[in-house]
Amino acid sequence: MMKSDENIKLDKMKNITSKIQNPNILELGVKKGKSTRMFLDICEKNNGYLTSIDIDDCSKILKHPKWNFIHSSDDNFDYINKLIKKDYDILLIDSLHEPNHIKKIFYNYFKFLKLNGIIFIDDVIWLPYVKGEARDNDFSERINRLTFDQIVRIYNSNKESLSLEIDFTGSGLAIFKKKNNQLNEDKKVINRMFTLKNLIKNIYAPKPKK
Ligand SMILES: C[S@@+](CC[C@H](N)C(=O)[O-])C[C@H]1O[C@@H](n2cnc3c(N)ncnc32)[C@H](O)[C@@H]1O
Predict the structure, then answer these.
(1) Atom of ligand 1 at shortest distance to CA of 32?
(2) 153, part of any domain
(3) How many A from CA of 36 to the centre of ligand 1?
(4) Taking the CA of residue 98 as centre, how many other CA atoms within 13 Å lie in the half-sphere pointing to its CB?
(5) 23: domain CATH number?
């Protein structure tokens, strides 16, 4: 049976996380607990611990000695930053899929990540949502394009502190690695595609000879 895109991305996160002994994991966004169960499976095998945060009360979805659930919006930093540990190996951002929220969250929780720690951000690719595609949806196409731009802007101003891989499976998964503690403000990527010169080039572009 073919694996769903969602399961392929979960497997990718699982493979990366499984390599860590005693992993300390922070998960933003629980819902029914798919990623929560995947991480707890690793915590059992590798003696790790998972803390999950959701704006909805997901505390009843499971009971596990290696799991702590915090019922809060993940941008309630005054509350959460006092509760959580300071040395996470893995951070999953899968809560409110909105570029400004993701930026805010990224900059707060980056401080709580160890060097070489990993940040997964789910849902960063717009391709399944464009017109005529399987999940054709104007809103999701726009939000995911903006989310992708936001992620590239963070990377663009922090190439010394971050590595970035994008998995294009389904709605996509960004995988950052923390290489340095310094994090600069994000930087707009200058786009010359819409200068007058390039717009004119698009109209009068010489056709390649056959
Ligand atoms: C896409 S689901 C998470 C899916 C989950 N990671 C999984 O693999 O099954 C998004 C979750 O984020 C939660 N959420 C939305 N906005 C939030 C916020 N500001 N803070 C914390 N959680 C939020 C929603 O309640 C929802 O449960």
Answers:
(1) 9
(2) yes
(3) 11
(4) 6
(5) 3.40.50.150
Domain presence at residue 209: no
Task: Classify burial at 77, counting beta carbons within 10 Å of its beta carbon; exposed 0-12, middle 13-18, buried 19 or more.
Answer: middle
Query: Amino acid identity, residue 53?
Result: I
pLDDT in tens, 150-163: 999 999 999 999 99
Q: Tell me the CB-side half-sphere exposure of residue 6, using CA atoms within 13 A.
A: 4
Q: 94 CB under 6 A from ligand 1?
A: yes
Which two structure tokens, joined as six digits, stand for 156?
């663009």
**pLDDT recorded at residue 206:** 67
- Interval between CA 31 and ligand 1 midpoint (Å): 6
Q: What is the pTM of this model?
A: 0.95
Determine if ligand 1 sits within 6 Å of the CB of residue 55: yes
Contact 93, 29 (CB under 8 A): yes
Strands of 39-185 (E only): list them.
Answer: 49-54, 67-71, 88-93, 113-122, 162-167, 173-178
The total number of structural domains in the chain stands at: 1
Pocket test for ligand 1, best of 8, 26, 54 (most atoms within 8 A of CB): 54
* 54-81 per-position pLDDT tens digit: 999 999 999 999 999 999 999 999 999 9
Q: Which domain holds residue 53?
A: 5-204
- Per-residue burial over 126-138, b if 16 or more Cβ lie within 10 Å, else e, is bebbbeeeeeebe
Q: Please report, for residues 123, 143, 145, 168, the alpha-carbon distance to residue 129 in angstroms, rounded to integers and kept in the order given.
A: 11, 10, 10, 13
Separation of CA 158 from chain center: 16
